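Subject: Protein record for review, amino acid sequence with backbone structure tokens
Concerning: The relation between a protein's sequence and the shape of its backbone.
How to read it: Take the token row as a discrete description of the fold.
Enclosed: The protein record, placed directly beneath this head.
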Amino acid sequence: MIFRKCENIMNRLLILIVLVLLGCRDSEPEQIIKQVEPGVIITDEQAKELSAKPGGLVVLSHINSITDNQAQILGTVNYLQLDGVSVLTDQQAKGLSQVRISLAIGLTTLTDTQAKILNRVKILELSSLRQLTDEQALILGKKRGALYLNALSTLTTPQALHLGQLETLSLLSIKSITDEQAEALSQVKRNLWLGINSITDRQASTLSKVRNLALDHLTNIKDKQAEALSKVPTLSLLGLTAITVEQAKNLSKVEDLTIPESLQPLIDKYKNQ
């Protein structure tokens, strides 16, 4: 239960960070989080009560199903989290697509029609979806905003080409990519978060075009790769276990670098020179 609460807090922080990165300058949403206990099925009246606070964040992580009417009601909020809902009807998707800013939902299957409908949401998190067709990637790649596909473990080159058109993309279960896919993903306009655990020199050079790049699953890099990645304005390499002096010199040039605390002193040494 403690882990779940921490996870929800982290999810919210992530949403707020993305909003800033996407350029959303509206006032911060009201600090209200509504959550129900495990196994509870909400009624329409409860759904209305939960959605009654404009600008609030509604978290229903333990609900595994909703009705068409509840989807319509909950679709009036700014932020909605439905981690336990794995299947939707098209009608429910239409209701939820009205969420104003961010929708996180635990879908394990997705139809082309639902992809088109849910594409209206500015920040869409489908982090339980393990498979995606090329057609769905084409549809989702046309959205304006952020897309999280953190359970997707395989990626085709056509999918990379389509998803590379997004403003923000997160693919934390993708462990490796080809050079061609790296080229496609480097076209992401603002923020790219990848779960790759290895990288080639060419890929590092290609991905250096991204404005905000997170490669937190890399445990080591080569000097040449550090030199290439030093061109990224905002870079996260939280998985690194060690760096060479040459790598520290190059990475110290990054305007906004996130790195393990144990490696920060070496970065600071050359950043201040």
